Amino acid sequence: MQVLPTFLPTTKPTLATLFAVAFCFTCSLTSECVEAEQTNPVHSVAKTNAFNNATATNEQYSRNYYAHTTIEGLSVPDNAVSFLTLGDWGRNGHFYQKHVAKWLDIASYQLDAEFIATTGDNFYDNGVASIDDPYWLSSYENIYHQPHLFIDWYPVLGNHDYRGNWQAQIDYSNKSRRWEMPAQYYSKTLILDDGSSALLLFIDTSPLNPDYAGEAKYQEAYSQGASEQLVWINTMLDKEQYTWKVVIGHHPLYSSGKRFGKTDAIKDVLEPIFHEHGVNLYIAGHEHDLQHNQLPGDDLVHVVSGGGSEVRPVGNYDFTQFSKSTGGFVSVSMTAKNIFLNYIDHNGKTIYTHTMNNTHTASLPNTTQD
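Predicted structure:
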């Protein structure tokens, strides 16, 4: 076989030659792209839609959007430390979940919220299977995607979370930057405007609830045991250096909703501890609505923030300060002197407010209601 010799050019190509080559190459690519889009119009439409969606998203979350999309009446002192509480929410976007997510983002923007605390039942009906369960996308990541919801989330477990792989919700903290759940129960300290501090306890109420002792579907929860956690709760609350003591859990001690008169078991476990150690505020979920419950003459304020998606009817009882069957959430804003509670529904309306005062007497009835 004869091998033909290879000749290298002895002179550099002219500028005109390079331009001609580039022009031909561009024409070839353009022709191929046009032909591809003609033979596969779906591809062309998909590219156009993706571009339009990205443009629409950028426009939606513009400064102009946040200037005109506001929650009227949501106002707290500039020096307040704020966080949002959301409960009973993980339902793949059903019911009011998407509506609540929209206004949660607006509230986070308006209050410059530090974090979001969940009151449990993060995934219905049976929790998640693993850290790769599709529910993480369909019920969490793809729902709470707005810009001002990419702050820390501090969850607690609810009874429905125990129907699945509850450990996966702790382990997801290693996969997601914003999901911060180091254990079944844990604490956080907030530094307030005058340099003092507030203690937040995130507790796991399902193992503490005697009502679950005989329920087969909650044996996994109840079998976790109560004694070790109760020792920890008492130890943490026994510290006297805190201006405020706030506890966040799933089961309410008082209910103006579906479980009215059915909360004595968990109440008998936790209420004496809260009173002994001067807890100021207990925030729970479990009931699918928004409530403020408080016994006459008692300093302890009970908040139910369980309006994350589905809602149920509520009633009005001796301890009921406010209750409404609505989707929504409750914001908590703290200074050394006050705690400001704002109840916001799924339409972005402030439907109730309450101010707690840092005194040794019961919080004053400084409230407004829609």
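Summary: The radius of gyration is 27 Å.
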